């Protein structure tokens, strides 16, 4: 039986932390599907189409062959079933992440006990990185190079210039 894993997220933008989980998660399964989802409550900077393209480009740069990037807007477990997944991969940065993810894993298990959730701890050097914080730093004119690839940094900075920095008013 082929092990199919999914790594869902908004990836707005994709960070070095996400890339670390993708790289490591791809070693645990035969095929890793990165699910780029919508979450309007997170106030996305990039459209779903832009985020999918961003993730596809970053994955291509990693040279990983067993990864597919797919957009989705559905209940995670329904989408996981549709993709034939038997593993959900989630990255953890801190204790606060664990509490939320633990609750979600329990709910997901109630919906489908045949799909396991696997938690991967982010690399210590990448643990503080969060897409939300990357966007906030950029919006206030801070340097985001330590948190994202050079191409993503340029995309975020271009978008910030278009939107206007928060420190400008």
The CATH topology corresponds to Rossmann fold
Based on secondary structure, the structural category is alpha/beta
SS strand fraction: 15-25%
So what's the oligomer here? single chain
Largest sheet strand order: 3-2-1-4-5
Helix % is 40-55%
CATH class: Alpha Beta
Mean pLDDT: 92
Rounded to an integer in angstroms, the radius of gyration calculated over CA atoms is 16 Å
What pattern of helices and strands is seen along the backbone? EHEHEHEHEHH
Termini Cα gap: 57 Å
Dominant shape: globular
Biggest sheet layout: 5 strands, parallel
Q: Which regions have little confidence, pLDDT < 50, spanning 5+ residues?
A: none
Note the total helix count. 6
CATH superfamily membership? HUPs
Instruction: Please give the CATH architecture.
Output: 3-Layer(aba) Sandwich
Number of domains: 1
* Total number of strands: 5
């Amino acid at each position: 039986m082929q092990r199919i894993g999914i790594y869902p997220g908004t990836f707005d933008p994709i960070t070095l932390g996400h890339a670390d989980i993708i790289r490591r998660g791809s070693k645990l399964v035969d095929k890793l599907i990165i699910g780029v989802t919508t979450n309007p409550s997170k106030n996305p900077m990039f459209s779903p189409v832009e985020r999918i393209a961003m993730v596809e480009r970053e994955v291509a740069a990693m040279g990983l062959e067993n990864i597919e990037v797919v957009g989705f807007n559905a209940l995670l477990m329904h989408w996981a079933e549709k993709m034939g997944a038997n593993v959900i991969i989630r990255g953890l940065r801190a204790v606060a992440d664990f509490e939320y993810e633990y609750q979600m894993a329990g709910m997901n298990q109630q919906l489908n006990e045949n799909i396991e959730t696997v938690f991967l701890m982010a690399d210590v050097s990448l643990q503080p990185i969060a897409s939300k914080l990357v966007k906030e730093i950029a919006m206030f004119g801070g340097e985001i190079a330590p948190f994202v690839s050079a191409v993503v940094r340029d995309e975020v900075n271009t978008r910030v210039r278009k939107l206007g920095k928060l420190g400008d008013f």
